[in-house]
Amino acid sequence: MSTVQGHCDPAFAGVREVFERNFADGRELGAGIAVYAGDRKVVDLWGGVADRRTGRAWLPDTPCFGFSCTKAVTAAAALLLAERGAYDVDGPVTDWWPEFGAAGKDGATAAHLLSHQAGLPAFARPVSAEEAADAEALAAELAAQKPEWTPGEAHGYHALTYGWLAGEIVRRHSGRTVGAFAKDEFTGGLDMWIGSLDDVIERAAKMSAARRGASDAPSTTDHDLLTRLAAAYGDPGSIMNRSLNNPHPGKGGYNNPVVLRAGWPSAGMLATAPGFAGFYRDLVAGRIVRPDTLREALRPRVSGPDRTLLVDSAFGLGFMRPAQTFFVPAAGRETAFGHTGAGGSIGLGDPDAGLALAYLPNMMGDQVSGDLRAYRLVQAAYAALS
């Protein structure tokens, strides 16, 4: 009997086949996948184990941690406020955050904050999970910090600091955290939370490291690149290491309730796959921001070598665009957008195709961004549309 349960439209049987194969081949512990074609939910599948230690089963309402998939929600919140005229995306940050002009950052714009160009990919000192619960304090620390490059002159993935930079747009213009603003404005009817209550945390899937041989990272024959990536990740002084690992989530890693309650706006979301796919469904349909706002947000602001990740990345205003960090099949390379998460998760939308997809697994891959499990599911979804 298959471990996979749920509904799949016959036209999207290929998605189910890929999902089932991932389990059969030992690439999954537990996971959920949901796909919308327009407003029609064509895939809602789940399976496996939510907690390796107890053997608790993955259920239809099991939320899972989305890592950096969270950034897309933060971006949508910031874009909605810009659409309402709260601030100018291409105007100076100092117009509404005067302190941010310190240490040579006076030329920074909100677009720089949203597109990983701010020059603040890492905190200058170690930050604990408890400290990271204070969004105002962390934003103030970044405002005072000297940038690693002049804002706008380069881009490098702001793996965790992004949340307290782009999140400060939301906090200063709405008086609410990203999680509260999103819940009030556009995610209230969806099973997704940035800042979770204890009952949600209790039923959430527990993140688990991949067992040896089970990882499914994209392959490459560029051994020089692999060597450089491994060296950078292991070097405590590299931008990659400092960006990805500080703040440290503390005991229990990203299962730590301190992190899940705080709702880091860079990597703090719990969601079910249908809930998160519903966010992209509404975004693509123009129910969160206007279609012209989304279209402008998807225009690539940066593309090419990433100072943090050491591979090519591409970003619009908060959203990833197809690149080495966001693998998309040929059918979506001009129109797809979204965000990946370090554990292998992905959220994706495509306005031209009317596609919305979310995949959330709890067995983490060992790659920073991009995962063949996710890619194969996205590929199958596009194949079904065609």
UniProtKB/TrEMBL annotation:
- GO MF annotation list: hydrolase activity
Its keywords, alphabetically, are: Hydrolase
The Enzyme Commission number assigned here is 3.1.1.103
InterPro entries recorded: Beta-lactam-related, Beta-lactam/transpept-like, Beta-lactamase/esterase
NAD in keyword set: no
Carries keyword Hydrolase? yes
The protein, known as: Serine hydrolase domain-containing protein
User: Where do the Beta-lactamase-related domain residues begin and end?
Assistant: 19-380
The family database entries (Pfam families) matched by this protein are listed as: Beta-lactamase
Which residues, by range, are in coiled-coil regions?
Answer: none
Q: What class of enzyme is it?
A: hydrolase
